[in-house]
Amino acid sequence: MKAINEMKLTVPSRSANEGFARAAVAAFIAPLDPTIGELADIKTAVSEAVTNCIVHAYRDGIGVIYIQAKILEQGRVVIRVRDTGCGIEDVKKAMEPLFTTCENGERAGLGFAVMESFMDKLRVSSRPGRGTTVTMEKTILSKGA
Amino acid sequence: MKAINEMKLTVPSRSANEGFARAAVAAFIAPLDPTIGELADIKTAVSEAVTNCIVHAYRDGIGVIYIQAKILEQGRVVIRVRDTGCGIEDVKKAMEPLFTTCENGERAGLGFAVMESFMDKLRVSSRPGRGTTVTMEKTILSKGA
Amino acid sequence: MDVQLTVEEETMTAFLSGEIDHHGAGEIRRKIDEMAQRVRPQKMILDFGGVTFMDSSGIGLVMGRYRLLQSFGGALCLRHVSSPLKKVMRLAGLDRIAQIEDTRPGEKQEGKRS
Amino acid sequence: MDVQLTVEEETMTAFLSGEIDHHGAGEIRRKIDEMAQRVRPQKMILDFGGVTFMDSSGIGLVMGRYRLLQSFGGALCLRHVSSPLKKVMRLAGLDRIAQIEDTRPGEKQEGKRS
Ligand SMILES: Nc1ncnc2c1ncn2[C@@H]1O[C@H](COP(=O)(O)OP(=O)(O)O)[C@@H](O)[C@H]1O
Ligand SMILES: Nc1ncnc2c1ncn2[C@@H]1O[C@H](COP(=O)(O)OP(=O)(O)O)[C@@H](O)[C@H]1O
């Protein structure tokens, strides 16, 4: 399907870029005139995916986060967040709600659960030692409809 | 000089991305807490540079616009807008206020004049047939200072 | 960006809002000119009260309307121009071809640049 | 994001504002815990009235404070939670461990999810 518009954004995995990444995606989809709820859903999902790159993928240093967003026909938004960090051994297990490898008790293990429930589709592919790609999709319903 | 933060953004040369590009740059420099005036200056300069890619560089079609922004020490912001479009024969002449190659009379020929006067520094390099790179710099004064 | 048009006696007012850039300027131009060519107003007020951003595309917008009005002897007036917009307009010397009426409510009236 | 802390008798209130994410959560946690460990309040109110965004880092923030309060027998109460925030909180079942007091002014009180 041909994209009506698309953008590619790369940032280093500094936590200040969590806010920047979701603001940039929000600005990108603004022409679709999303509701406050739709916008919050997408910003939250992007924030989870980008935070995972910072907290997990590049936990021992700074790497590059690749964010791509596309607007397709009929309000379909596809967002991809990719890292070349540590990767995930068992994606199925990682996606289980409450599962977290974070030990200080301050991560809830709900990042993937948020992405899954706030977006229409979520696909996670990962190779240990090579990195992880999260692809999410959501349709912004036209307010006229 | 080492960047404190940086981002790279690529978008197709659709006019809808004029607004997106300046919103993205604005979100990126938000942590510097710019004044309304400083923010307006930078957004305006970015808008001029991106519009030039759309209107001039890729006037006969859609190409890719490459935007890079860096935050350096002491509030220095460096922004680069690059295209691989038609290029500029005579950069010096192109930069003269009121000079425009646009014939319908709706471009004021002030894009470069705005970039020059709203930013601290402006550098334009171009190769006919290869593209143009505009590099702009501005220091966001710390409000505490 | 958007424009609302009103005509009262010899005066046409265009209430502009949102962000004025190249992307939106064409549509605004068409709307204003279509009406202006019909009513041929003695005075046109461009009201920038709702405008949150403007780049040099806005200068093209003002200059073009100025030329159109000149063609049938009308005057152009710019209203509710915020400081950042004024900065762009001054760069182009728009304060010399059109009257910049007043500032946005709550904003200090600035003196003309000498 | 930012936090303002008040203590009145046995109740400690943390007024949170801005965007709650991983970037800012650490600082907020430290500020709240430093105070809570000193006063050991019977009740802690987390006031989300000024919060414009929250992701699952906010859940970690709430859960961690819940555990801390449990450790000295205090109760946790969440106040002024807007609809988007409530959506995140419900996913984590926070409505089961803490009382979600009321909504933001002007917003409809929603029933509990069955
Ligand atoms: N980009 C990533 N790179 C490496 N590991 C990841 C990545 N994203 C998630 N994970 C792994 O999956 C687990 C679950 O992720 P998530 O559901 O987002 O919860 P949380 O971030 O709170 O731990 C993480 O604890 C981590 O082990
Ligand atoms: N990125 C670019 N690619 C090719 N030509 C350009 C580019 N930017 C500017 N120019 C040329 O320089 C001229 C002056 O640019 P500018 O000062 O921005 O005024 P305007 O855009 O109003 O014409 C343009 O009319 C065009 O001929």
Task: Examine the coordinates and then state which fold CATH places here, giving the name of the CATH topology of chain A.
Answer: Heat Shock Protein 90
Low-pLDDT segments of chain C: 106-114
β-strand percent of chain A reads 25-35%
Instruction: Give the overall silhouette of chain C.
Output: globular
Describe the protein's architecture and organization.
Chain A has a five-stranded antiparallel β-sheet with strand order 1-2-3-5-4, covered by helices on one side. Chain A has helices at 16-29, 36-57, 91-94, 111-118; strands at residues 5-12, 64-71, 76-83, 121-127, 131-139. Chain A is of the alpha+beta class and 145 residues long. The radius of gyration of chain A is 15 Å and the shape is globular. Chain A has four helices and five strands. Chain A has one domain (3-139): Histidine kinase-like ATPase, C-terminal domain (Heat Shock Protein 90, 2-Layer Sandwich). Chain C has one domain (2-100): 2-Layer Sandwich (Transcription Regulator spoIIAA), CATH 3.30.750. Chain C is built from four helices and five strands; from the N terminus they run ββαβαβααβ. Chain A binds chain D through residues 15-16, 18-19, 22, 36-37, 40-41, 43-44, 47-48, 51, 54-55, 105-108, 110-111, 113-114, 117-118, and chain D through 19, 21-23, 25-26, 29, 53-57, 59-61, 63-64, 67, 83-84, 87-88, 91-92. The structure holds adenosine-5'-diphosphate (2 copies).
